């Protein structure tokens, strides 16, 4: 091939290489900032034809959304508390809550990751997005763009998680967001959430079928899980109970500690009040597997909260009760069940038997600050709060 014929081909190759290099360099230098924090990602945003494409999974998961990939359909689905979104690779049409929307550029697969146009983040979930060309920064505001009043009430188990989340979000939105958190039990959380008395009802158990039937507009969202430990006084010598012994003690068949290897002393059972999510979950998970339709012995002393049970057991050497993992401290002693200690690790690997869901509920599908607060529970920052409180965040 002579030089005159080869020259145009050589020029074209050099242009393509230069274009690819420019894109690669742009990708390596682009930062993602969400709510003021730099986000780490194994893939960086890409600038193509003046459009900013961002990795969908890392963005949406940092906003607390659930992201799923259907390989057969080449479809990405994104679910937040307020919105359902779906995109098909190489298609300019997406769906937001079932309605078609048109993208500037289609979603694409780049280096094995799904990339979407930055502008679509705003359209999809209501986040504020911007591109700073000077600093090559993708800036997204979601949890720092909240305003209004949110009332939360119900389960005392969820109360410390909700309060911690509320404190963080009000600090992120000074003077714009007000969140109040009260207790009252899971039954109150369902009723208050369903009626609109609370923007968010806290429930530390499954929503009952009867409740779903009664409250047709009720929406529920799992935000984590919790174990329930059997607790006794620190000076009690008993270390382990079988599942059958737990059943027999709490239903009144076993009445003396000597029957389970302890001292010759009566057992004083402590329980939660009717309507408590902790009580409902305990009956379902600890009593029902042995024998259905059994209740905690009527002579048990009821308490209105987890701290109430803990304080009673801490004061009485012969007392026994059950307590949410999140309320365990060194004032009481926990018992193993069939040799399995009540730890988060054992709850996660399903060795420990008494584990329940942590749920929030609303009247209809939530929006605005209420929806974002629910999303916050499943964001990386929200999960850290749940874990710090000794509960179990969603994977």
TrEMBL record:
Gene3D superfamilies in UniProt: Copper amine oxidase-like, N-terminal domain, Periplasmic binding protein-like II
InterPro entries: Cu_amine_oxidase-like_N, Mao_N_sf, PBP_domain, Phos-bd, Phosphate_ABC_transporter
Membrane topology listed for this record: Lipid-anchor
Organism of provenance: Clostridium aceticum
Span of domain Copper amine oxidase-like N-terminal: 33-140
Protein family: Belongs to the PstS family.
Assembly information from the UniProt record: The complex is composed of two ATP-binding proteins (PstB), two transmembrane proteins (PstC and PstA) and a solute-binding protein (PstS).
Subcellular location: Cell membrane
Organism taxonomic ancestry: Bacteria, Bacillati, Bacillota, Clostridia, Eubacteriales
Keyword Aminoacyl-tRNA synthetase attached: no
Transmembrane segments: none
Alphabetized GO MF terms: phosphate ion binding
Key words, A-Z: Cell membrane, Lipoprotein, Membrane, Palmitate, Phosphate transport, Signal, Transport
GO cellular component, one term: plasma membrane
Domain PBP: 147-381
Protein name per its UniProtKB record: Phosphate-binding protein
Any GO BP annotation: phosphate ion transport
Functional note: Involved in the system for phosphate transport across the cytoplasmic membrane.
Leader sequence residues: 1-26
């Amino acid at each position: 091939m002579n030089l005159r014929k080869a020259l145009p081909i050589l020029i074209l190759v050099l242009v393509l290489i230069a274009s690819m290099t420019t894109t690669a360099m742009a990708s390596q230098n682009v930062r993602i900032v969400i709510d003021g924090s730099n986000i780490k990602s194994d893939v960086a945003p890409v600038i193509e034809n003046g459009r900013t494409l961002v990795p969908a999974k890392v963005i949406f998961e940092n906003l607390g959304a659930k992201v799923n990939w259907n390989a057969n359909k080449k479809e990405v689905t994104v679910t937040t508390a307020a919105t359902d979104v779906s995109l098909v690779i190489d298609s300019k049409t997406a769906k937001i809550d079932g309605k078609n929307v048109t993208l500037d550029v289609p979603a694409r697969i780049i280096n094995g990751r799904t990339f979407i146009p930055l502008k679509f983040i705003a359209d999809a979930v209501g986040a504020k997005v911007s591109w700073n060309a000077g600093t090559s920064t993708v800036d997204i505001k979601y949890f720092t763009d909240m305003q209004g009043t949110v009332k939360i009430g119900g389960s005392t188990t969820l109360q410390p998680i909700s309060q911690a989340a509320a404190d963080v979000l009000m600090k992120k939105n000074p003077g714009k967001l007000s969140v109040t958190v009260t207790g009252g039990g899971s039954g109150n959380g369902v009723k208050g959430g369903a009626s609109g008395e609370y923007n968010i009802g806290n429930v530390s158990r499954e929503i009952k079928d009867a409740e779903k039937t009664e409250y047709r507009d009720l929406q529920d969202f799992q935000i984590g899980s919790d174990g329930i430990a059997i607790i006794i006084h620190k000076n009690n010598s008993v270390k382990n109970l079988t599942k059958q012994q737990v059943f027999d003690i709490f239903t009144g068949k076993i009445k003396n500690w000597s029957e389970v290897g302890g001292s010759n002393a009566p057992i004083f059972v402590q329980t939660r009040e009717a309507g408590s999510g902790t009580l409902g979950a305990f009956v379902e998970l600890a009593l029902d597997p042995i024998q259905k339709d059994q209740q905690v012995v009527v002579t048990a002393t009821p308490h209105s909260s987890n701290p109430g049970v803990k304080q009673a057991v801490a004061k009485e050497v012969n007392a026994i009760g059950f307590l949410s993992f999140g309320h365990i401290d060194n004032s009481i002693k926990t018992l193993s069940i069939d040799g399995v200690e009540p730890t988060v690790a054992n709850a996660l690997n399903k060795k420990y038997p008494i584990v329940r869901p942590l749920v929030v509920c609303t009247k209809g599908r939530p929006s605005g600050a209420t929806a974002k607060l629910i999303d916050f529970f499943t964001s990386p920052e929200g999960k850290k709060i749940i874990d710090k409180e000794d509960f179990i965040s969603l994977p």
